[in-house]
């Protein structure tokens, strides 16, 4: 039997708390989602004032970061016209996000889930996602 390590609800809460702190420091309310090793939603928070349109985006950024085990910003860097991953955003029933703000969660060098953040600029979303990921 293969054992797969994944994030727990407690892990997800810790990641989200760190993300909320970073978003408040930036003055940008965000949606923050955490998925497990299987890409399934563990927890999500929509900060007061965050766009409702970003709920789905944050969840899908987390899914994307886990599905490909890389940040959505890195995926986006290779998804433009003529690049190796051009059109990838149409895969997985349109769930793949090529906007910055999705980051894999690693424990002991292994990907155990991912966090997705949406609500600010790509730079803000990345900064919040990285601060959130650091809390794991």
Automatic annotation (TrEMBL):
PANTHER family: PROTEIN GLCG, SLR1406 PROTEIN. It comes from the Bacteria. InterPro entries: GlcG_carb_metab_protein (IPR052517), PduO/GlcC-like (IPR005624), PduO/GlcC-like_sf (IPR038084). SUPFAM superfamilies: GlcG-like (SSF143744). It holds the Pfam family HbpS-like. This is Heme-binding protein. Gene3D superfamilies: Haem-degrading domain (3.30.450.150).
């Amino acid at each position: 039997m293969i054992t797969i390590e994944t994030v727990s609800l407690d892990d997800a809460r810790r990641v989200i708390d760190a993300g909320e702190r970073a978003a408040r420091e930036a003055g940008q309310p965000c949606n923050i989602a955490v998925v497990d090793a299987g890409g399934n939603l563990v927890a999500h928070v929509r900060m007061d004032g965050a766009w409702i349109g970003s709920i789905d985006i944050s969840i899908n950024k987390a899914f994307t970061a886990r599905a490909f085990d890389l940040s959505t910003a890195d995926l986006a860097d290779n998804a433009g016209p003529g690049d190796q991953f051009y059109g990838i955003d149409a895969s997985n029933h349109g769930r793949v996000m090529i906007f910055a703000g999705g980051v894999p969660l690693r424990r002991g060098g292994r990907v155990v889930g991912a966090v997705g953040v949406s609500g600010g600029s790509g730079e803000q979303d990345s900064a919040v996602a990285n601060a959130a990921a650091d809390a794991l």
